[in-house]
Specification:
Layout: H1 3-42, H2 46-54, H3 58-85, H4 92-109, H5 112-126, H6 131-159, H7 171-194, E1 198-201, E2 204-207, H8 211-237, H9 244-261, H10 269-277, H11 283-317
Antiparallel strand pairs: 1-2
Helix pairs in contact: 1-11, 2-11, 3-4, 3-6, 3-8, 3-11, 4-5, 4-11, 5-6, 6-7, 6-8, 6-9, 7-8, 8-9, 8-11, 9-10
Length: about 325
């Protein structure tokens, strides 16, 4: 019997094995997200949450939720622009679905680049993306995150340098750091405009985005984090007056610490950093409100959408 004849029956078995593997990974992902949701809820004092929410004006809760939604809307543009950078443009609704599900879960799982990247790959592979295309998209999104943090940090430290006094930085040093962040963003745009194409750095080759994509990065990246900081600002303002500038600076510092620690949802990290930079008796209660608005509610919605998406695919495959 020829090798081709022997290979024939093996191919259906291999395809069937891959199908069961994908199904197993999907079930594992849904179970992990569900367990994560339960764990996060179990770590939060329901009594404290009730007391906090009972004293908060409904307008503050609505504003916090609105800014959280605006942030996730900005994040959908990360993926939409990233697909264009990868040379595989998609309708916004598809990019939005992959972005929200992957990031609502990835933000809470920790190791966001890996966790959200794996979920992204599952979505984009269905739409004909190769592994290298997904890698380009993820790299673009990661760079947009970095530019967003640098942009917001630059603005916050330049105009509210006193906000980081709790970290031991003088106002002059903080302002210089902020200007450095803004300068780095300007350098990135200049490279994309002047060099165009590819840039080599110590043996690494980086495909530069088109100037319009780079400009979009510098707009949507900081806007996303400005919305998250605004969500936190509304939560904090529900209990005591506080300016937006210090809150934005505190959030950038907390986000950087979260990225370094890979703590799921920044648990403990956000509370520690924000509590150090914005002291107050009700900071913890405000952070509970913020966590529910930005992490828990999106996680629950993302879990539902992920399960629904997997169920649809399963039905379509028979």
């Amino acid at each position: 019997m020829s090798s081709k004849a022997q290979a024939g029956p093996a191919r259906p078995r291999a395809r069937k094995g891959r199908r069961f593997l994908r199904l197993g990974l999907a079930v594992l992902g849904v179970a992990l997200a569900g367990a994560l949701l339960y764990r996060t809820l179990s770590q939060t004092s329901m009594a404290e949450l009730r007391v906090a929410l009972a004293s908060v004006a409904p307008g503050r809760v609505a504003a916090a939720l609105a800014f959280a939604a605006a942030s996730y809307m900005c994040l959908t543009l990360f993926d939409w622009l990233g697909a264009r950078y990868a040379g595989r443009p998609l309708p916004w609704r598809k990019a939005a679905r992959a972005s929200f599900v992957s990031l609502s879960l990835g933000h809470n799982i920790g190791f966001a680049a890996l966790s959200s990247g794996a979920i992204r790959y599952r979505f984009y592979a269905r739409w004909g993306f190769r592994a290298e295309d997904v890698a380009k998209l993820i790299a673009f999104c990661a760079l947009t995150v970095g530019l967003g943090l640098a942009g917001l940090a630059g603005l916050a430290l330049t105009f509210a340098p006193q906000a980081v006094a709790g970290l031991g930085l003088s106002a002059g040093a903080a302002r210089a750091l902020g200007l450095g962040c803004l300068f780095a963003c300007a350098i990135w745009l200049a490279c994309c405009v002047v060099l165009r194409g590819r840039m080599r750095v110590r043996g690494w080759t980086l495909a530069l985005p088109e100037p319009r994509l780079a400009l979009a990065q510098l707009m949507v990246g900081p806007l996303n984090f400005a919305c998250v900081a605004a969500c936190l600002h509304q939560a904090l303002s529900a209990f005591a007056p506080v300016d937006y500038g210090p809150v934005a600076t505190a959030y950038v510092a907390a986000n950087v610490a979260t990225l370094i620690s890979h703590a799921p949802g920044g648990l403990g990290v956000i509370e520690t950093v924000v509590g150090a930079l914005i002291p107050g008796e009700r900071v913890l209660a405000a952070l509970i409100l913020f966590r529910f608005a930005y992490f828990i509610i999106p996680l629950a919605l993302g879990l539902i959408l992920f399960a629904y998406s997997e169920a649809r695919i399963r039905r379509a495959r028979g």
